[in-house]
């Protein structure tokens, strides 16, 4: 009798173990702990397991509206660039961007705009960051429960001292002297290129102190299914990582960051003047993590996009492959129906690819194949190369809102703009 009870107990434990292993397999495995070692960066990943849900394969885009998020023509800070967008559980949209004198200048500030009507109208810009540094990229992620995470990047002061010819003539001598004095008062560490995050716990009304992070990217991190933040970006000036694209994690909402897993790119893009940068990361329902990266050649402004995957929470990555279209940097969003949307900018006019502007493509097989290009917005100047960096969010009714920077009508400097659109299934 006692041996039968013991046998039942062991069978019960075995059944629990089998169910646990099955659960881990379904959810992409167990997320590695902070103490685990990074695997070889040359590892490749297996083909994706397509989710069981039926993902639409034939979709038609419908452009609903295009308009302004932020525009400034009455002050010197008329240049707007590098926006990001997120949405909270109430449907409020938050868009952040850099507002400054010029594309390259040390006089920038981070501003935030909000919309409570699905992106049709936006609040005036609220300044979040305004320091002696340039406040360039601005990314924003909604963490839930009223928490927002803002990412920012600043060039080193040395960068602007070496590039004075480009911006000094646009400022007064007094402004120039004040800037140099403020830089002189900074420590050597503060003068380096800096990437940091700030956290708000009250829907963006107030913000915590800057927290240094070792990587930077235009749109910031993504929230994994476990709640962990995964940030994929280029190494900042505060690290000794070296050149490359790295993935880091935070398990406490962005307060601390651990590990750096380098993403492999083909040898051809690591030499001869090529530059790989400005990635964006998202996690799919299957657990697979996808990253797209900008690649730019040494003698042309033609931009391409690289794509890579991870099936082990970002510890190892497939060798990055180039997409078969022109344009970058790109942003990824998986819709509620499982379709993966990639929005990107085209900054070089060509008879083959068309005018400069904002474009999108969609994938029904987790990024293995992609649709033809969808035109979201075309620049009034088809040869203008100063535009782009789109980011997209989906509203509760399925509407997509993409924000980007582009010259409004015939302005001399770009504003932050939006396009509202839909992807409807073709019957």
Keywords:
four-stranded antiparallel β-sheet; 40% strand; mainly beta; 12% helix; Neuraminidase; 427 residues; single chain; 5 helices; five-stranded antiparallel β-sheet
Structure description:
The chain has 427 residues and is mainly beta. It has a domain at 59-85 and 219-425: 6 Propeller (Neuraminidase). Helix content is 12%, strand content 40%. β2 and β3 (93-100) form a beta hairpin. The chain starts with a helix and ends with a strand. Mean pLDDT is 87; it is low at 1-8, 13-27 and 35-48.
**Proportion in helices:** 10-25%
Number of helices: 5
**Class computed from helices, strands and strand pairing:** mainly beta
* CATH class (first level) name of the domain at 59-85 and 219-425: Mainly Beta
Total beta-strand segments: 25
> How far apart are the termini?
64 Å
**Approximate shape:** globular
The proportion of strand residues reads: 35-45%
Topology:
Layout: H1 2-26, E1 59-70, E2 79-87, E3 93-100, E4 108-115, E5 126-129, E6 138-144, E7 147-154, H2 157-162, H3 164-167, H4 173-184, H5 188-191, E8 194-200, E9 211-212, E10 215-216, E11 222-223, E12 229-235, E13 245-250, E14 258-262, E15 275-283, E16 289-296, E17 303-310, E18 321-326, E19 330-334, E20 340-346, E21 357-363, E22 374-378, E23 388-394, E24 400-407, E25 414-425
Antiparallel strand pairs: 1-25, 2-3, 3-4, 4-5, 6-7, 7-8, 8-9, 10-12, 11-12, 12-13, 13-14, 15-16, 16-17, 17-18, 19-20, 20-21, 21-22, 23-24, 24-25
Task: Provide a compact summary of the structure.
Helices cover 12% and strands 40% of the residues.
